[in-house]
Amino acid sequence: MKFSAKVYKIGINPYVLLPPVILKKLFVDAGKEKGSIPVKLVINERIFIQNLVKYSGKWRLYLNTPMRKTAGKDVGDIIEIDIEFDNWERIIPIHSKLEIAFKQNKQAKKAFDNLPPSRQKEILRYINFLKTEESVDRNIKRVINFLSGK
Predict the structure, then answer these.
(1) Which of 37, 48, 94, 107 has the least CB density, counted as fewest CB within 10 Å?
(2) What's the predicted TM-score (pTM) here?
(3) How far is CA 56 from CA 6, 10, 76, 87, 121, in A?
């Protein structure tokens, strides 16, 4: 489904609002109207994976820097987007070192399991994208301390 929309900004985050007809179709395809909705975008023939989220009463499609650069657009410009529901399951694996740390600290694991799914994903994504083993080790220690209340 293709649409054109003006790029707005809330805080530091650029976003677009989707036309109601496209939003309605995405709800039907996703089988829900609550929580984030995974979508696949095509901007200038390049594919992006993103989530449609409701914030402050409006469904927003946030546009990161690579998306805007691909389109050659920024806040205030009109951007062309092809969008569809993305039913591919997005599982973020647990880093092997974090898994070991959780086995050694049951309290931290229990605290992690009680976090909202979005916060769990945020932690897993952060640890998985660290570049050096030293950074991984240092940040896993921080995560365990945080979850243990230290």
Answers:
(1) 107
(2) 0.67
(3) 18, 10, 20, 25, 22
Q: Given this model, what pLDDT does residue 118 score?
A: 80
Please tell me whether residue 71 adopts helix, strand or coil conformation. helix
Are 76 and 103 within one domain?
no
Report which secondary-structure segment, H or E, holds 137. helix 133-147
Last residue within a domain, chosen from 85, 113, 137: 85
- Strand arrangement, sheet containing 58-62: 2-6, 78-85, 37-43, 46-55, 58-62, 13-17, 8-10
In one-letter notation, the amino acid at residue 46 is R
CA gap 29, 6 in Å, rounded: 24
CATH number, domain at 76? 2.40.30.100
| Residues 92-137 pLDDT 10s | 899 999 999 999 999 999 999 999 888 898 999 999 989 899 999 9
